Each structure stands twice: as C-alpha cells, then as structure tokens.
C-alpha cells in the first residue's frame, strides 16, 4: 500500500526525512540487490567525483538534500549519491513507466504508470513537500531516492511525469535525477525547459510537461547530446526509449517490454479502444494486459525487465488548478486525490 509522508524544512532536513522513510527498504532489500551492486562499481571513479562536484557547484541545495538522504538512510554519502546517478552510469536501471498524453481544449491530461523495482513494493508513497526554499510540491517517492524522477505537481501548477531512457553512453554531467528535481523549483514550462538546455547533462529521460492555465502539452526527450521538445497535438504514448526523430540516432537500449508497450499502447490509442479521441480511456489502456509476456500494466514476478507497476497517476491540468488522482491499480478506487501540491 502506498503511504503518505509530509516533509518540510531545510534541504538537509527534508533529505533526512526521506532517508528515514526509505531506510527499512534500503537495508532489508536495496543494498543486497544486484541493481545496487551494478551501480556501486562506480565508487571512487573520476566520473562519480566530477558528477558530485557539478551538483555541489550548480545545485547546492539539492546536494544538501542528497547528503540529508544519506544521513537518514545511515549509508555512506558517496553510495547514496551514486544510487541517485543509477540511470547515468547503468543503462538497465529498473525504472520503466508508460505515459499517455492527451491534449485538449479544456487542458492537457497526462496519465502515467510508474514502473519500478518490485523489491520496493509496499515501501513507496506520496510525499507532500514544503521546503524552506522553493515551491511546495507533491511527488511519488521511491526509497533511497530524491523526488522528481517519477511524477509530481508543484504549487505553480507545473505537472511532470518521467520515463526512463536507457542510454548506452556514460558522459560526465549533472545526473538526470538532479535535473528533474531542480525542474520542480521552476515556475513555468519555459523555465523548466531552459534549465535542461543550459545544463551539462549526463543521462536521459523522457518528460511529459504541462502547466495550469496553459494549453500546451510538451513531450521532452533529453540526454547528454541534446534536448528535443515537441508540442503534443494528438493522443500519444511514450514508453522507455527515444521516439523523437531528432534524437533517434543516439545509442540506447530498447527492451522488448518497452517496444511492445509502445506498439500496443499506440494501437489502443488510435482505434483499439476508442471510436474517437474523446472516447479514449487512458486508465483502461494503462491497465491493459493483453500481451501476457509484455503487458502495459506489469505485475508479474518474472517481468522481463524486472519491473512492476507501483502506482498510476491521472493528471488533469486545467485553467485554474491541477486535479489528479493516484491509484494503486487502474480500475480500483484512487488511493489519493490532490489539487496542485496538496492532498484533498
């Protein structure tokens, strides 16, 4: 079951509270997992030192949050920092996700399956953040990770969902999870995209971005080589590989799960479940398990990517507010309902 945690204070205090939230899962599961071992081979490397120095220089408050996270987890700071660089140094990080993007004259709708390591089942939650510096926001949380790389909404009405991209390149830069955490401090879509364009990036993500009072729904792919921003004008789906034409030449891993979710979901969007765009039910698509081996909704103990769907978010971005629900499984009653960054 997803939990709710309220966090406030300085970056270090917030990080420490995040660490206490995730400590049980970290010590009982994470640090003995193969995923942890695959990332820890980067201990004491020049790349790890340079990435941490870049975060200290350009995002000192987020660096403090990471140090607080390590303190709360009671784990070495270098190890916790590296774990939050997992998608920058390791292309097969167990972070998946499927996002449906629906533009509308009444405001965008973003629906998102958050897929992650099934070892974290029962240890995830929603955090309501009230930092001393920066806007309030609410975000899905994994143990041992800073917020912002999953799905989140801020008090500025900025809504963001995040999909893993599996880059084969390792380039020293600001870790992707630090960048998406920093984006939650921005007050507008333009500022959020500008942050990506103006920062030395390491790994890559796909983002769906929208903001209350703005009709634009943005699909953003970024990695160390570039940033691609597209305005979504028709129902679209994004899984875990690059699909923008300008980005398709960078070396990446496309898993069978990602490929089949992209194909199946796109087929359902364009006639499989709906006679017209107005009839699309994104939660029905995100619950789809027609492909036994590569379903969109993933709950198999032997999932091909080692991932399960941990939660589903359905975000309606309106003129005056962002209303959104978080489900433990599509088709069930919502676990949480929020307006902007507050639980209702």
Write up this protein.
This protein is α+β, with helices and mostly antiparallel strands and 344 residues long. It has one domain (3-343): Penicillin V Acylase, Chain A (4-Layer Sandwich). It is 30% helix and 25% strand. The chain has 10 helices and 15 strands. It has helices spanning 11-28, 34-40, 46-58, 60-73, 77-83, 86-89, 176-183, 189-197, 256-272, 282-286, and strands at 3-9, 98-102, 109-116, 125-131, 137-141, 151-154, 158-164, 205-211, 218-223, 226-231, 236-238, 308-317, 322-327, 336-339, 342-343. An 8-stranded mixed sheet has the order 1-4-5-6-7-8-9-10, with helices on one face. Strand 12 and strand 13 (322-327) form a beta hairpin. Helix 3 crosses helix 4. It is globular. It starts with a strand and ends with a strand.
In a few lines, what is going on in this structure?
The chain is an alpha+beta fold. 30% of the residues lie in helices and 25% in strands.
- The count of helical stretches stands at 10
Specify the CATH homologous superfamily: Penicillin V Acylase, Chain A
- Share of residues in strands: 25-35%
Q: In the CATH scheme, what's the topology name?
A: Penicillin V Acylase, Chain A
- Could you give the order of strands across the largest sheet? 1-4-5-6-7-8-9-10
Anisotropy-based shape: globular
Report the biggest beta sheet as strand number plus sense, adding barrel if it closes. Answer: 8 strands, mixed
Q: Helicity level, as a percent range?
A: 25-40%
Number of strands: 15
Tally of individual domains:
1
CATH architecture: 4-Layer Sandwich
H-E order: EHHHHHHEEEEEEHHEEEEHHEEEE
- Give the distance, in angstroms, between the N- and C-terminal Cα atoms: 19 Å
Give me the secondary-structure category. alpha+beta
User: Rg from C-alpha positions?
Assistant: 18 Å
What is the class in the CATH system? Answer: Alpha Beta
Low-confidence stretches: none
| Overall pLDDT | 94
